[in-house]
Design a protein that fits this description.
By secondary structure, the protein is mostly helical. The protein is built from 9 helices and no strands. It has a domain of 95 residues. Helix content is 78%, strand content 0%. The radius of gyration is 20 Å and the shape is globular.
Length: 171
């Protein structure tokens, strides 16, 4: 039961169902856009991508466990250990390893940027929609508002590049 609970949590997180990212992004659609069709496509593609990623993850974990002669539970780790310890080890054993490593970390980078853009846009649009006179009445106010939010997010992220980052991520 715990596995299915974790899977459902992953689906809700990747859809940004709790942060409002889908709603914030859909606010840029045309008024007569078929929102139902778009939401079904996004949900189905998201679920299919998660299932495919699960196959890839457990294939790699199974391969490494077989190579080391241990069980999968001993190879699998929570948190950043999976992406930054286990996968690079598997990528190093593939043919043309540097190419696959570049592709893998480019994928990680684009996933991170995509998540971050969605969350920041949700925050920006929430306040801009609620208080348009304060934040978006002129181009200058909009620029200053967006710049201040991005600088604030940057300053909040600075501790994540220090030695305490793993503790903050765990919290």
């Amino acid at each position: 039961m715990l596995v299915w609970s974790d899977a459902a949590t992953q689906i809700f997180y990747s859809l940004s169902a709790c942060t409002g990212g889908m709603v914030a992004m859909s606010s840029y659609n045309k008024f007569d856009n078929n929102v139902f069709r778009d939401s079904m496509i996004v949900a189905c593609v998201n679920c299919a991508t998660s299932v495919f990623a699960g196959f890839v993850i457990f294939s790699i974990l199974g391969f490494i466990a077989h190579e080391k002669g241990v069980s999968v539970e001993e190879v699998a780790t929570d948190g950043p250990g999976l992406a930054f310890e286990v996968y690079p080890e598997a990528l190093a054993q593939m043919p043309v390893a540097p190419l696959w490593s570049v592709f893998f970390f480019l994928m990680m980078l684009t996933l991170g940027f995509g998540s971050e853009f969605s969350m920041v846009e949700c925050l920006l649009s929430a306040f801009a929609d609620e208080y348009p006179r304060w934040f978006t009445s002129t181009r200058l106010r909009s620029f200053i508002y967006r710049t201040l939010v991005i600088i604030s997010c940057f300053l909040l992220g600075v501790p994540m590049v220090t030695n305490v980052s793993i503790y903050l991520q765990t919290i």
